[in-house]
Amino acid sequence: MSDFSFNGRQKDLVATQLMRQDAALNLNGLYSFPVPPNETILREAIKYVGQYYKSLSYKVAYADGQIYPEQVQEDVRIACIEGLSMREQFDAIYELARHPFDLLSERPFRVFLFRTNQHVDQMLLQFHHVATDWWSFRVIHKALTEYYDQTEIPTLSKDNIFDYNSMSLLREDSDEALAFWEEQLRPGLVRRVKQQGQPAVHQQWVVSSDLQKIEAIAREWKTTLFEALFLKFAQELMEVFQQDFLINTPVGNRKSAHFVSTVGYVMNVVPVRCHYISGHLNWERTLKDLRLAIKYGETSRGKLSDIARLSIGTNEPLFDIVFMFLRDNIGAAHMPANSVFTRIYPGQDEDSFVLTLREQNGVLTAVVESQGEDVDVSNAVISFLSAIGQG
Protein backbone atom coordinates (compact mmCIF):
# COMPACT_ATOMS: atom_id res chain seq x y z
CA MET A 1 0.00 0.00 0.00
CA SER A 2 1.04 3.60 -0.57
CA ASP A 3 2.30 5.89 2.17
CA PHE A 4 -0.43 8.42 1.35
CA SER A 5 -4.06 8.41 0.21
CA PHE A 6 -5.99 10.14 -2.54
CA ASN A 7 -8.22 12.99 -1.42
CA GLY A 8 -11.93 12.89 -2.22
CA ARG A 9 -11.67 14.90 -5.44
CA GLN A 10 -8.90 12.60 -6.72
CA LYS A 11 -11.00 9.52 -5.93
CA ASP A 12 -13.85 11.05 -7.97
CA LEU A 13 -11.54 11.55 -10.94
CA VAL A 14 -10.11 8.04 -10.73
CA ALA A 15 -13.61 6.53 -10.56
CA THR A 16 -14.74 8.63 -13.54
CA GLN A 17 -11.71 7.57 -15.59
CA LEU A 18 -12.20 3.89 -14.76
CA MET A 19 -15.90 4.03 -15.67
CA ARG A 20 -15.37 6.16 -18.79
CA GLN A 21 -12.15 4.79 -20.21
CA ASP A 22 -12.47 6.92 -23.35
CA ALA A 23 -12.64 10.20 -21.37
CA ALA A 24 -9.65 12.51 -21.81
CA LEU A 25 -9.40 14.06 -18.34
CA ASN A 26 -6.14 15.69 -19.34
CA LEU A 27 -4.27 18.97 -18.90
CA ASN A 28 -2.08 19.71 -21.90
CA GLY A 29 0.60 22.39 -22.21
CA LEU A 30 2.44 22.97 -25.48
CA TYR A 31 5.89 24.61 -25.55
CA SER A 32 6.92 25.86 -29.01
CA PHE A 33 10.62 26.68 -29.42
CA PRO A 34 11.66 29.45 -31.85
CA VAL A 35 15.25 28.30 -31.35
CA PRO A 36 16.03 24.63 -30.60
CA PRO A 37 16.57 24.07 -26.85
CA ASN A 38 19.35 22.06 -25.28
CA GLU A 39 17.61 18.69 -25.41
CA THR A 40 19.89 17.05 -22.86
CA ILE A 41 19.14 19.67 -20.19
CA LEU A 42 15.46 19.65 -21.14
CA ARG A 43 15.26 15.89 -20.61
CA GLU A 44 17.09 16.20 -17.27
CA ALA A 45 14.63 18.90 -16.16
CA ILE A 46 11.64 16.72 -17.10
CA LYS A 47 13.08 13.72 -15.26
CA TYR A 48 13.83 15.81 -12.17
CA VAL A 49 10.35 17.34 -12.02
CA GLY A 50 8.70 13.94 -12.55
CA GLN A 51 10.61 12.52 -9.58
CA TYR A 52 10.33 15.53 -7.28
CA TYR A 53 6.53 16.00 -7.34
CA LYS A 54 5.00 12.90 -5.81
CA SER A 55 1.61 13.22 -7.55
CA LEU A 56 3.40 12.70 -10.88
CA SER A 57 5.04 9.44 -9.82
CA TYR A 58 2.02 7.43 -8.63
CA LYS A 59 -0.28 5.26 -10.71
CA VAL A 60 -3.57 3.80 -9.43
CA ALA A 61 -3.85 0.43 -7.73
CA TYR A 62 -7.01 -1.41 -6.74
CA ALA A 63 -7.41 -3.95 -3.94
CA ASP A 64 -10.13 -5.02 -1.50
CA GLY A 65 -12.63 -2.66 -3.09
CA GLN A 66 -10.37 0.37 -2.59
CA ILE A 67 -8.35 2.56 -4.95
CA TYR A 68 -5.03 3.91 -3.75
CA PRO A 69 -1.79 5.39 -5.16
CA GLU A 70 1.10 3.08 -6.01
CA GLN A 71 4.53 4.52 -6.76
CA VAL A 72 6.05 4.03 -10.21
CA GLN A 73 9.76 3.26 -10.14
CA GLU A 74 10.59 3.93 -13.80
CA ASP A 75 11.55 7.39 -15.06
CA VAL A 76 9.08 9.54 -16.96
CA ARG A 77 8.71 8.22 -20.49
CA ILE A 78 9.66 10.83 -23.08
CA ALA A 79 8.38 9.98 -26.55
CA CYS A 80 10.05 11.49 -29.63
CA ILE A 81 8.08 12.10 -32.81
CA GLU A 82 10.14 12.96 -35.86
CA GLY A 83 9.79 13.73 -39.53
CA LEU A 84 6.47 15.59 -39.44
CA SER A 85 5.71 18.92 -41.06
CA MET A 86 4.54 21.70 -38.75
CA ARG A 87 0.92 21.10 -39.83
CA GLU A 88 1.30 17.38 -39.19
CA GLN A 89 2.82 18.13 -35.78
CA PHE A 90 -0.22 20.16 -34.72
CA ASP A 91 -2.58 17.45 -35.99
CA ALA A 92 -0.67 14.91 -33.89
CA ILE A 93 -0.63 17.21 -30.85
CA TYR A 94 -4.40 17.68 -30.86
CA GLU A 95 -4.88 13.95 -31.34
CA LEU A 96 -2.58 13.19 -28.39
CA ALA A 97 -4.39 15.77 -26.24
CA ARG A 98 -7.54 13.67 -26.54
CA HIS A 99 -5.83 10.37 -25.71
CA PRO A 100 -7.01 9.03 -22.31
CA PHE A 101 -4.68 7.83 -19.57
CA ASP A 102 -4.72 4.25 -18.32
CA LEU A 103 -4.25 5.09 -14.65
CA LEU A 104 -3.84 1.45 -13.66
CA SER A 105 -0.75 0.99 -15.80
CA GLU A 106 0.94 4.38 -16.25
CA ARG A 107 1.94 7.43 -14.24
CA PRO A 108 -0.30 10.48 -14.83
CA PHE A 109 2.45 12.39 -16.68
CA ARG A 110 3.51 12.10 -20.34
CA VAL A 111 5.99 14.04 -22.42
CA PHE A 112 6.22 14.25 -26.21
CA LEU A 113 9.09 15.91 -28.07
CA PHE A 114 8.53 16.83 -31.72
CA ARG A 115 11.79 16.99 -33.67
CA THR A 116 12.85 18.11 -37.14
CA ASN A 117 16.38 17.42 -38.33
CA GLN A 118 17.27 16.16 -34.82
CA HIS A 119 16.23 19.47 -33.20
CA VAL A 120 13.22 19.88 -30.88
CA ASP A 121 10.51 22.13 -32.32
CA GLN A 122 7.79 21.57 -29.74
CA MET A 123 7.20 19.83 -26.42
CA LEU A 124 3.83 18.62 -25.18
CA LEU A 125 3.49 18.12 -21.41
CA GLN A 126 0.41 16.09 -20.57
CA PHE A 127 -0.98 15.41 -17.10
CA HIS A 128 -4.02 13.56 -15.88
CA HIS A 129 -6.21 15.82 -13.77
CA VAL A 130 -5.84 13.46 -10.80
CA ALA A 131 -2.22 14.61 -10.50
CA THR A 132 -2.47 18.32 -11.30
CA ASP A 133 -4.76 21.29 -11.53
CA TRP A 134 -3.81 24.49 -13.39
CA TRP A 135 -2.26 25.96 -10.25
CA SER A 136 -0.08 22.85 -10.03
CA PHE A 137 0.83 23.29 -13.69
CA ARG A 138 2.21 26.74 -12.86
CA VAL A 139 4.30 25.23 -10.04
CA ILE A 140 5.63 22.54 -12.38
CA HIS A 141 6.34 25.08 -15.10
CA LYS A 142 8.33 27.26 -12.69
CA ALA A 143 10.38 24.26 -11.51
CA LEU A 144 11.02 23.14 -15.08
CA THR A 145 12.18 26.61 -16.09
CA GLU A 146 14.42 27.01 -13.03
CA TYR A 147 16.08 23.66 -13.66
CA TYR A 148 16.64 24.41 -17.34
CA ASP A 149 18.15 27.83 -16.61
CA GLN A 150 20.46 26.84 -13.75
CA THR A 151 23.93 25.33 -13.90
CA GLU A 152 23.12 23.62 -10.58
CA ILE A 153 20.00 21.76 -9.46
CA PRO A 154 17.66 24.43 -8.04
CA THR A 155 16.23 24.30 -4.54
CA LEU A 156 12.48 23.89 -5.07
CA SER A 157 9.75 24.67 -2.57
CA LYS A 158 8.59 21.69 -0.56
CA ASP A 159 5.81 19.65 -2.11
CA ASN A 160 3.32 19.00 0.69
CA ILE A 161 0.81 16.72 -1.04
CA PHE A 162 1.04 14.08 1.71
CA ASP A 163 0.20 16.66 4.41
CA TYR A 164 -2.48 18.26 2.26
CA ASN A 165 -4.37 15.04 1.53
CA SER A 166 -4.25 13.95 5.18
CA MET A 167 -5.77 17.29 6.21
CA SER A 168 -8.27 17.39 3.35
CA LEU A 169 -9.69 13.95 4.11
CA LEU A 170 -10.58 15.19 7.60
CA ARG A 171 -12.19 18.44 6.39
CA GLU A 172 -14.01 17.64 3.17
CA ASP A 173 -16.91 15.75 4.78
CA SER A 174 -17.10 17.59 8.11
CA ASP A 175 -20.57 18.09 9.63
CA GLU A 176 -20.21 21.85 9.19
CA ALA A 177 -19.32 21.55 5.50
CA LEU A 178 -22.10 19.08 4.71
CA ALA A 179 -24.70 21.24 6.47
CA PHE A 180 -23.66 24.20 4.31
CA TRP A 181 -23.91 22.21 1.08
CA GLU A 182 -27.30 20.80 2.03
CA GLU A 183 -28.52 24.40 2.42
CA GLN A 184 -27.00 25.42 -0.93
CA LEU A 185 -28.65 22.52 -2.73
CA ARG A 186 -32.11 22.75 -1.18
CA PRO A 187 -35.13 22.70 -3.54
CA GLY A 188 -36.18 25.82 -5.44
CA LEU A 189 -33.39 25.97 -8.02
CA VAL A 190 -33.81 26.67 -11.71
CA ARG A 191 -33.87 23.51 -13.82
CA ARG A 192 -32.53 24.29 -17.29
CA VAL A 193 -33.36 22.03 -20.22
CA LYS A 194 -30.15 20.52 -21.56
CA GLN A 195 -29.36 20.94 -25.24
CA GLN A 196 -29.13 17.41 -26.61
CA GLY A 197 -27.23 16.63 -29.81
CA GLN A 198 -26.28 20.25 -30.40
CA PRO A 199 -22.84 21.18 -31.79
CA ALA A 200 -20.37 22.65 -29.30
CA VAL A 201 -20.07 26.44 -29.34
CA HIS A 202 -16.72 28.20 -28.80
CA GLN A 203 -16.51 32.00 -28.72
CA GLN A 204 -13.75 34.35 -27.62
CA TRP A 205 -13.54 38.12 -26.99
CA VAL A 206 -11.11 40.73 -25.74
CA VAL A 207 -13.19 42.37 -23.00
CA SER A 208 -10.99 45.11 -21.57
CA SER A 209 -7.46 46.43 -21.85
CA ASP A 210 -7.87 48.58 -18.72
CA LEU A 211 -8.40 46.24 -15.80
CA GLN A 212 -7.73 49.04 -13.30
CA LYS A 213 -11.24 50.43 -13.86
CA ILE A 214 -12.82 47.11 -12.92
CA GLU A 215 -10.51 46.74 -9.91
CA ALA A 216 -11.55 50.23 -8.73
CA ILE A 217 -15.20 49.11 -8.80
CA ALA A 218 -14.31 46.00 -6.77
CA ARG A 219 -12.61 48.17 -4.13
CA GLU A 220 -15.69 50.40 -4.01
CA TRP A 221 -17.86 47.34 -3.41
CA LYS A 222 -15.37 46.05 -0.79
CA THR A 223 -14.91 42.80 -2.71
CA THR A 224 -12.09 41.07 -4.52
CA LEU A 225 -11.95 41.40 -8.30
CA PHE A 226 -13.16 37.81 -8.64
CA GLU A 227 -16.12 38.44 -6.32
CA ALA A 228 -17.12 41.59 -8.20
CA LEU A 229 -17.03 39.80 -11.56
CA PHE A 230 -18.98 36.84 -10.15
CA LEU A 231 -21.71 39.07 -8.70
CA LYS A 232 -22.08 41.09 -11.88
CA PHE A 233 -22.40 37.92 -13.94
CA ALA A 234 -24.97 36.56 -11.46
CA GLN A 235 -26.95 39.80 -11.72
CA GLU A 236 -27.20 39.50 -15.52
CA LEU A 237 -28.26 35.83 -15.30
CA MET A 238 -30.88 36.68 -12.66
CA GLU A 239 -32.61 38.90 -15.24
CA VAL A 240 -33.10 35.70 -17.26
CA PHE A 241 -33.95 33.15 -14.56
CA GLN A 242 -35.96 35.18 -11.99
CA GLN A 243 -35.39 32.33 -9.51
CA ASP A 244 -32.59 30.93 -7.38
CA PHE A 245 -29.94 29.24 -9.52
CA LEU A 246 -26.39 27.86 -9.23
CA ILE A 247 -23.15 29.16 -10.66
CA ASN A 248 -20.35 26.62 -10.31
CA THR A 249 -16.88 28.04 -9.83
CA PRO A 250 -13.37 26.63 -9.24
CA VAL A 251 -11.73 27.24 -5.86
CA GLY A 252 -8.00 26.84 -5.27
CA ASN A 253 -8.16 25.21 -1.81
CA ARG A 254 -4.68 26.46 -0.97
CA LYS A 255 -5.60 28.43 2.12
CA SER A 256 -2.19 28.16 3.75
CA ALA A 257 1.27 29.17 2.55
CA HIS A 258 2.30 25.63 3.50
CA PHE A 259 0.41 24.36 0.43
CA VAL A 260 1.15 27.06 -2.15
CA SER A 261 3.70 24.86 -3.96
CA THR A 262 1.75 21.63 -3.59
CA VAL A 263 1.26 19.69 -6.83
CA GLY A 264 -1.88 17.58 -7.07
CA TYR A 265 -5.59 17.85 -7.68
CA VAL A 266 -6.16 20.31 -4.86
CA MET A 267 -8.74 22.61 -6.47
CA ASN A 268 -12.44 21.87 -6.79
CA VAL A 269 -15.49 23.17 -8.65
CA VAL A 270 -18.25 24.09 -6.23
CA PRO A 271 -21.83 25.39 -6.61
CA VAL A 272 -22.81 28.84 -5.33
CA ARG A 273 -26.49 29.60 -4.84
CA CYS A 274 -27.52 32.96 -6.32
CA HIS A 275 -30.50 34.23 -4.33
CA TYR A 276 -33.61 35.78 -5.89
CA ILE A 277 -35.31 38.01 -3.33
CA SER A 278 -37.85 40.80 -3.95
CA GLY A 279 -37.44 40.59 -7.71
CA HIS A 280 -33.66 40.92 -7.82
CA LEU A 281 -30.36 39.21 -7.06
CA ASN A 282 -29.65 39.53 -3.35
CA TRP A 283 -26.00 40.60 -3.50
CA GLU A 284 -25.30 40.37 0.23
CA ARG A 285 -26.57 36.82 0.67
CA THR A 286 -25.02 35.61 -2.59
CA LEU A 287 -21.64 37.10 -1.66
CA LYS A 288 -21.84 35.46 1.77
CA ASP A 289 -22.52 32.07 0.19
CA LEU A 290 -19.73 32.56 -2.35
CA ARG A 291 -17.25 33.10 0.47
CA LEU A 292 -18.57 30.11 2.43
CA ALA A 293 -18.39 27.93 -0.71
CA ILE A 294 -14.69 28.79 -0.93
CA LYS A 295 -14.27 27.99 2.78
CA TYR A 296 -15.88 24.56 2.36
CA GLY A 297 -14.44 23.96 -1.11
CA GLU A 298 -12.82 20.61 -0.31
CA THR A 299 -16.05 18.59 -0.34
CA SER A 300 -15.84 16.41 -3.43
CA ARG A 301 -18.12 16.80 -6.43
CA GLY A 302 -19.21 13.21 -5.91
CA LYS A 303 -20.49 14.03 -2.43
CA LEU A 304 -22.16 17.21 -3.75
CA SER A 305 -23.86 15.11 -6.43
CA ASP A 306 -25.21 12.75 -3.76
CA ILE A 307 -26.62 15.69 -1.78
CA ALA A 308 -28.20 17.21 -4.90
CA ARG A 309 -29.86 13.95 -5.94
CA LEU A 310 -31.40 13.51 -2.49
CA SER A 311 -32.57 17.13 -2.33
CA ILE A 312 -33.71 18.02 -5.85
CA GLY A 313 -33.68 14.66 -7.60
CA THR A 314 -30.78 15.40 -9.97
CA ASN A 315 -27.18 16.55 -10.02
CA GLU A 316 -27.53 18.37 -13.38
CA PRO A 317 -27.23 21.92 -11.92
CA LEU A 318 -23.72 20.98 -10.75
CA PHE A 319 -22.69 20.50 -14.38
CA ASP A 320 -24.57 23.39 -15.93
CA ILE A 321 -23.21 26.95 -15.63
CA VAL A 322 -19.54 27.37 -14.73
CA PHE A 323 -17.76 30.69 -14.16
CA MET A 324 -13.95 30.86 -14.03
CA PHE A 325 -11.55 33.74 -13.50
CA LEU A 326 -7.87 33.05 -14.13
CA ARG A 327 -4.79 35.17 -13.65
CA ASP A 328 -2.57 33.01 -15.82
CA ASN A 329 1.17 33.45 -15.44
CA ILE A 330 2.13 30.59 -17.75
CA GLY A 331 3.23 32.22 -20.95
CA ALA A 332 3.66 35.65 -19.37
CA ALA A 333 6.68 34.71 -17.28
CA HIS A 334 10.13 33.59 -18.41
CA MET A 335 9.96 30.39 -20.46
CA PRO A 336 12.53 27.60 -20.88
CA ALA A 337 14.59 28.38 -24.01
CA ASN A 338 12.29 31.37 -24.70
CA SER A 339 9.48 29.04 -25.77
CA VAL A 340 5.88 30.07 -26.38
CA PHE A 341 3.22 28.39 -24.21
CA THR A 342 -0.25 27.30 -25.40
CA ARG A 343 -2.97 25.46 -23.53
CA ILE A 344 -4.33 22.56 -25.57
CA TYR A 345 -7.84 21.53 -24.58
CA PRO A 346 -8.96 17.91 -25.08
CA GLY A 347 -12.30 19.11 -26.48
CA GLN A 348 -14.46 17.21 -23.97
CA ASP A 349 -16.38 18.73 -21.09
CA GLU A 350 -19.22 17.50 -18.94
CA ASP A 351 -20.33 21.05 -18.13
CA SER A 352 -23.07 22.59 -20.30
CA PHE A 353 -21.91 26.21 -20.27
CA VAL A 354 -18.50 27.55 -19.25
CA LEU A 355 -17.51 31.23 -19.15
CA THR A 356 -13.79 31.77 -18.56
CA LEU A 357 -12.35 35.23 -17.92
CA ARG A 358 -8.57 35.35 -18.14
CA GLU A 359 -6.35 38.28 -17.13
CA GLN A 360 -2.87 38.46 -18.59
CA ASN A 361 -0.68 41.56 -18.64
CA GLY A 362 -3.64 43.76 -17.71
CA VAL A 363 -5.83 42.54 -20.59
CA LEU A 364 -9.08 40.72 -19.81
CA THR A 365 -10.32 38.15 -22.32
CA ALA A 366 -13.39 35.93 -22.27
CA VAL A 367 -14.03 32.45 -23.67
CA VAL A 368 -17.45 30.78 -23.82
CA GLU A 369 -17.70 27.03 -24.33
CA SER A 370 -21.16 25.47 -24.41
CA GLN A 371 -23.04 22.40 -25.53
CA GLY A 372 -25.47 23.99 -27.96
CA GLU A 373 -26.64 27.59 -27.82
CA ASP A 374 -29.02 29.15 -25.27
CA VAL A 375 -30.11 32.54 -26.60
CA ASP A 376 -31.20 33.95 -23.23
CA VAL A 377 -27.98 32.96 -21.47
CA SER A 378 -25.90 34.14 -24.43
CA ASN A 379 -27.58 37.55 -24.29
CA ALA A 380 -26.90 37.73 -20.53
CA VAL A 381 -23.22 36.97 -21.19
CA ILE A 382 -23.01 39.66 -23.88
CA SER A 383 -24.63 42.20 -21.52
CA PHE A 384 -22.20 41.19 -18.75
CA LEU A 385 -19.13 41.46 -20.96
CA SER A 386 -20.31 44.82 -22.31
CA ALA A 387 -20.80 46.16 -18.77
CA ILE A 388 -17.37 45.13 -17.50
CA GLY A 389 -15.72 46.22 -20.74
CA GLN A 390 -17.01 49.72 -20.14
CA GLY A 391 -15.70 49.61 -16.57
Describe this structure in words.
The chain is α+β, with helices and mostly antiparallel strands and 391 residues long. It is built from eleven helices and 15 strands. The chain has helices at 8-19, 39-52, 86-97, 134-149, 161-171, 175-184, 211-221, 225-241, 283-295, 301-312, 375-389; strands at 26-32, 58-63, 66-71, 78-82, 109-116, 119-128, 200-208, 245-251, 268-274, 276-277, 280-281, 321-327, 340-344, 353-360, 363-371. It has a five-stranded mixed sheet, sandwiched between helices. Helix 2 (39-52) crosses helix 4, helix 7 crosses helix 8 and helix 8 runs antiparallel to helix 11. It is globular, with a radius of gyration of 22 Å. The mean pLDDT is 88.
Task: Summarize this structure as a short list of keywords or feature phrases.
about 400 residues; alpha+beta; Chloramphenicol Acetyltransferase; 2 domains; 5-stranded mixed β-sheet; 4-stranded mixed β-sheet; 11 helices; about 35% helix; globular
Q: So what's the overall shape?
A: globular
Overall mean confidence score, pLDDT = 88
Range of helix content: 25-40%
CATH hierarchy, class of the largest domain: Alpha Beta
Proportion of residues in extended strands: 25-35%
Give the spatial strand order of the biggest sheet: 4-5-6-1-13
- Kindly identify the CATH topology of the largest domain: Chloramphenicol Acetyltransferase
Unreliable segments (pLDDT under 50, ≥5 consecutive)?
Answer: none
Number of domains: 2
| Number of H/I helices | 11
C-alpha end-to-end distance:
55 Å
CATH architecture of the largest domain: 2-Layer Sandwich
* Series of H and E elements: HEHEEEHEEHHHEHHEEEEHHEEEEH
CATH homology superfamily name of the largest domain: Nonribosomal peptide synthetase, condensation domain
